[in-house]
Structure formats: C-alpha cells, structure tokens
Amino acid sequence: METQAAQTANAIIEPVATGKPPEKVGRLGTSMDGTMIHIRGEGWKELKVGCFFEVELAPTLDPHTLEWDELAHAHHLSYVSHLGGPEPFGKKLWSEAKRRQWHAAVDTQIVADGAVWIWNLTSDYFYDAHQLVDWYHADEHLATAAHLAFGETSPEATQWHKQQELVLFQGHADRIAQTISGLAEQNTAAREKLLEQAGYFRHNQHRMNYLEMRADGWVIGSGMVESGGKRFKDRFAKSGMRWSRDGAERLLPARAALMSNRFETIWKSAYNSPLN
C-alpha cells in the first residue's frame, strides 16, 4: 500500500484524458528491472523501475563482422518507479503506457530479464506484446552453466560457451536446456546448480527467439532499463545515503520525470507560482 506521500507525488504524473482518439504511433517497447535503496528502519528495499521506449532502426556497426547493418535501438525513453511490490508498480506502468499511447502503437514488445514478477505483470498488462528475455542475461546464464560444468578458467568452458551461444541466438533454447541437463547427469558435484540453469532455459524458451526478433527489427537487450536503474541508484544509494520512506517516495517521481525529460512540464502542473 502506498503512503500518502507516494499518492500525492504520483498524482502529478497521471495522464490526462483528452477525449480525442489516439493517433497511430510506431513501435513501442517497455522493460522492467529492480535495484536497491536503503530505507531507514527497514533496511535495503527493492526499487522497481520501468522504462518505455520507441523502437527505431539505425545503421549499426557489427563488432564481430565489422559490417554495417540496420538494427533496432531504443529512443525517446521515459521512466516510472515504485518502492514496493509488483501490483502497485503494475498500475504505474499501465498509467505510463496509456500516456505513451500503447494501444495505438503499430506493434509492441517487452524485453527484460527472467524475473517471475516481470512476466506476471506482462501477462496482466502487456499480454499481446512480443516477449523476449534480454540476450545478455541469457548469455550470462549460459556462461554460468559452462563454468559449473567445466571450471571457470578452463578452455573447455570457453569453447562450449561459444558453441552454445550460436545455438541460443538461433532460438534453440530447448536444446540448450537438454544439453545442460545432460551435463548435470555427468557432474555430481554441480548437478543441482546445473539443473537450475537448465530450468531457466526450459522455462523461458518461448522468450528466446533472438535471431527472429532481431531480423524483425526489435531490440534484444534491456540496457535501457538497467541504465535507468543505475541512474536511480546513483541518486538514492550513494555511500552513506539513508532515506525515510516518505522522503524517497516524494522524490522518486521527480527523479523519473527528470530522467524522462518531462520535469518542466510536470513541475508546471504541480506548482504554479503567483504572477509578479
């Protein structure tokens, strides 16, 4: 449940209904993540962060082939945040989605890590969007499996990881899960941890069609929300910072507005100084 401070602070960022039909907009996407800030008397608490963006193609240099290609990028970012559970955060996400004219978009996508609460909110609010687990998080899990099976510094781990990266990028996460399960049966010491990694790929396989999504002009990484989380953390979690809950909840919407390049507009709607 939100405190009075949070309700007051967030009231200024609700979209205003105009009665006009929405204009058609291009492709939109959203991503979610969590970071930690310290609340006095409560300890470290998760701050949930959401990022909305437009998906646009732009010439991009491939660092591996050194060839230029038209790849998708996230532009015109806007942020929301919530200090607490997923249900009130979902309402804030949907409020921003309406402001960004989500229903008027040509097409939509969700790209995020494998956290269960993220995909539960996706099912509640963004069920018809393309879903994708962030490539870099998936690749980290692949590296973890390689290290568990072959040892962190072994050439075998590096070789296996590189081989399986291609399989994963081509959209065969089911094969990855089967391969890791096989390695688990051969490695008693790391069996349980390897099975956890296999489960990660098996559970998310329908959200790991990277080659197809990139070819269709979608982003495959969630760096935009991770960058946003770092900016929130930079403001709220520097060394020695401790916040009252009311103080953090009053400032969080202002931080989100500043990061979204909407501070001046929101400030004018929240505070009107008298004329000279």
Description of the structure:
The chain has 276 residues and is of the alpha/beta class. The chain has helices spanning 4-11, 86-99, 116-125, 135-150, 155-169, 173-186, 191-204, 210-215, 223-236, 245-259, 263-270; strands spanning 28-39, 43-61, 68-83, 108-112, 130-133. Strands 3-2-1-4-5 form a five-stranded mixed sheet, sandwiched between helices. The longest helix has 16 residues, at 135-150.
Record the SSE blueprint.
Blueprint: H1 4-11, E1 28-39, E2 43-61, E3 68-83, H2 86-99, E4 108-112, H3 116-125, E5 130-133, H4 135-150, H5 155-169, H6 173-186, H7 191-204, H8 210-215, H9 223-236, H10 245-259, H11 263-270
Parallel strand pairs: 1-4, 4-5
Antiparallel strand pairs: 1-2, 2-3
End-to-end Cα distance: 41 Å
* Tally of separate domains: 2
Element-by-element helix/strand order: HEEEHEHEHHHHHHHH
Which structural class matches the secondary elements?
Answer: alpha/beta
Shape summary: globular
Count of alpha and pi helical runs: 11
Residue share in helices? 40-55%
Overall average residue pLDDT: 90
Biggest sheet features: 5 strands, mixed
Strand order of the largest sheet: 3-2-1-4-5
Q: What's the total number of strands? A: 5
